[in-house]
Amino acid sequence: MTKHITRDQSDAKPRIHRDNTLKFFEQRAARAQELGAIKAVLYQDKHPTLAEARDRAEKEALLPVLDTRPGDRVLDVGCGVGRWTSILSERCSYYHGLDFSPGLIDYARRSHAHRTNVQFSVASADDFSLSSLGSQAPFDLILCCGIYIYLNDEEIVSSGRCIADAAGHNARAIFREPIALKQRLTIKDHYSEELEADYNAIYRSKEDLMSLLSLHMAPAGFKLIHDAPMYDDPALNNRTDTKQHFFVLERS
Ligand SMILES: C[S@@+](CC[C@H](N)C(=O)[O-])C[C@H]1O[C@@H](n2cnc3c(N)ncnc32)[C@H](O)[C@@H]1O
Prior knowledge:
The chain is an alpha/beta fold. It has 8 helices and 10 strands. It has a single domain (4-251), classed as Vaccinia Virus protein VP39 (Rossmann fold).
């Protein structure tokens, strides 16, 4: 397998392949018991506490922004092991997590089997609808954490359309993503020593990510109402080329 890191020059946009990304997440699912659920999806495998610290900081900062209401129906796109499932299903009337990894969804289902207002589906972020999810009503709150770096540009556009079609009239959509600080960065079939696996991801600027998502979401009435860096504590961002950021879009 070719292993290289591409720092895109001019308008060259290398693609990543979904089969390779899926293989990576199936490996993470297989190691979830050994690594622990949080590390399985937030990584930092060689660091004893960073993933857990990020999980806490993210929930502390995003919960007020999510502004959950008891009657809310929540869709968690790319839900992984269901890191957000407990906290959201306890605050809202219904939680639905979707992820393209059967292994991660199996883990999420087993961990939350006792919850009566929770459902999970194996589905791709760029190819779902209310009817494919078996959902009776639109969603009020859509959460997407750390998934768009695994999609090519046109797949993000399609995902924005799926979200807009599945969202209710006054829905909010919250995105938390690592953002490229300088130029677009594609990691393609690169063996990561830390993750002990081949890794693929595309890091985009804030503007690029928002313009791809907005292509269908803006005409559907979604507006960006807030965006900010994810962590106040600089120690939680351990990369120099990328930084975690969140965006809140609201439909009115
Ligand atoms: C970094 S993990 C984050 C998981 C979860 N959102 C969280 O914050 O705990 C990225 C997740 O995106 C999922 N994913 C990647 N590409 C996807 C796709 N095309 N459709 C659905 N899920 C996808 C992976 O399986 C994985 O669960």
